[in-house]
Amino acid sequence: GYYVGITKYAQELLDDLDAMSKEMGKKKTAIVSEALEMYMDYQDIQLAKKRLNDSTGTITHDELLKELGI
Questions:
Q1: Cα Rg of the chain, angstroms
Q2: 70: three-class secondary structure by DSSP
């Protein structure tokens, strides 16, 4: 069922991580940490693109100053 597939997939990831760790001479935690950092950077870019696409446009310098109360 569903959980067997998840468990098999997780085991494959762990096996790949183990092989990569040995080949690269790096600790598994270092590889996972780097991968997570890269993923978070990627997601930040995706969110920034979404915000840009969702934005209503630009405002003038005067409007910005007014919004900031300056």
A1: 22
A2: coil
The DSSP result for 29-63, as a single string, is HHHHHHHHHHHHHHHHHHHHHHHHHH------HHH
The predicted-structure confidence for 38-57, as pLDDT tens digits, reads as follows 999 999 999 999 988 888 77
Can you tell me the distance from the alpha carbon of 18 to that of 43, in angstroms, rounded to the nearest whole number? 26
CA nearest neighbour of 35 among 17, 47, 23, 49: 17
Residue with structure tokens 């998840």? 6
Q: How far apart are CA 42 and CA 49, in angstroms?
A: 11
pTM for this prediction: 0.65
Q: Which of 44, 25, 26 has its CA nearest to residue 36?
A: 44
